[in-house]
TrEMBL record:
Belongs to the enoyl-CoA hydratase/isomerase family. One of its GO terms (molecular function) is catalytic activity. CDD domains: crotonase-like. Transmembrane segments: none annotated. This is Enoyl-CoA hydratase. The lineage of its organism: Bacteria, Bacillati, Actinomycetota, Actinomycetes, Propionibacteriales. InterPro entries: ClpP/crotonase-like_dom_sf, Enoyl-CoA_hydra/iso, Enoyl-CoA_hydra_C.
Amino acid sequence: MSDSVLYTVDAGVATVTLNRPDAMNALDTPTKVQLRDTILAAADDPAVRVVVLTGTGRAFCVGQDLKEHIGLLQANDQAALWSTVPDHFAPIALALAEMPKPVIAAINGVAAGAGASMAFACDFRVVADTAGFNLAFTGIALSCDTGISWTLPRLIGHAKALELLYFPRTVPAAESLDLGLATSVVPAADLETAVAELAAKLAAGPTVAYGAVRQSLGYSASHTLAEALVFEAGKMQETGATEDHHNAVESFVAKQKPTFTGR
């Protein structure tokens, strides 16, 4: 097993860490495979109530490993070049965006290309004040991937998304917050603490309800109001059957603070 992706679970918080600091956490094929499989495992693990995605070193993730990519171009290995999008990048984006539990991106450094795309698929982006985003795809004459065509316009609007994708530049943390790319910006020295506090709050919450809310928002983005209402009704029934709902109602009546178990 490669150590290019690290994985820990503690008190309901799963931390997935990209660990290729010398390559700015660029995604070569072994790393993409391990990242995909790790995120899918976290999504399916009932002991995990929130997922944190981050990187080691000075970058969050700079996207595709271009050294590997150049080798595949020179070898004219078309299958390996482009199968990575449906085989790796797409499953990663779907798992981050649709798993039934909250996901936090802890942006410790630059998030570029697919690295930015992965961050945008998360619920929260806690960004170090020294970090930033670069939507680098057209800078190497490629289209965009890893779900950014879906997530980015929903975060900042169609026109601004086009601008940032057409004319890649590093958007610094403060501007990222103003645009809506970042959920919050904290001093770099405080990033770990800020993320830990948010993760602990989410891990102590009603996990099934959180999952239902994020899935409802995702569903409504591509369906009619009438269809969204039907989907909402199903999720209300699903969450209404949980122990957390029943205990929370009893706690409310008793004027006590509820304790959520995620079930």
